[in-house]
Every structure is written in structure tokens, then in C-alpha cells.
Amino acid sequence: MKLHQLSPTPGSHRKRRRIGRGLGSGRGTTAGKGTKGQNARSGGGVPPYFEGGQLPLVKKLPYRRGFTNRSRVEYQGVNLQDLQQFDAGSTVDVALLVSVGLLKSDKERVKILATGEIDRALTVTAHRFSATAREKIEAAGGACHALEHASGAV
Asked: What's the fold here for domain 76-146?
């Protein structure tokens, strides 16, 4: 078989309907567009959001400002006052925070924030620390260890 011998299966290919090609075609005169009016004109019709002259919903809504940074890294904040529940000398990491219920998932990135006080030495492992939180933990005799996330961001 050669390329010029190929043809579609009988009945699988319909001929295009040629409208506006004379009265005898059955699709002449108004060419299936009815009689007169906006939709009968070339380029006629209204856009999908048109509401018959009423103020469209698009114009009623507030204008969108700013943009969404697609490379933004979200951190789940955990305060020092939340770490107060752990015993002195314990190691606090993401898995422990999930088991206690301070985080929903171990996939979340954690940032330790300085709200509250801490009076015990803890070894805290998280993705980020605020400067004040790091100072407070180290002042209490603890240590801070920064984690790298799977994507490589610190």
C-alpha cells in the first residue's frame, strides 16, 4: 500500500456543511442565523460575560492588585511558649512536633518564633529560627540546629 492509496473508512468522514451558498442548498438566504438582529450580523453576538446592559459581575468585583510569588516558601510558625511543654534536655524536631499536634504534617517547613519565654535547655531542630528565638534558646542553655528541606532551601 502506498500513501496515495490511503482513504478514510467509508462513513467516517462527513463533508463540511457549506452554508450561505444559494437557495437550492437548503442553507441559503439567512444561512441559519434567523432574521436580522445582532446575532445575524458579521462579528455579531455578545461576549459570555455580557448581562444585557446590567453592570456586569466582572465590574462589580474589586480589582486584583499585586501578584502571587510562585517561588514563595511557606513556613509553619511554632512559638517558644509552645516548646515549654517539653522536658529539659529533650531534642525537639519536626517528628516530635507532629506527634504532639503542633504541626499537621512532617512535610511542612518549620520556623521557630520568639513569642513567649523558655526556661529550659532544649536542642531544637527546625528549618528556620528567628534571631530573637535563637538568642532565647541559647540563653536558656539549649542549642539550635537548622534543617535543609528536600528542595534544598534552608
From this structure: Ribosomal Protein L15; Chain: K; domain 2 (3.100.10)
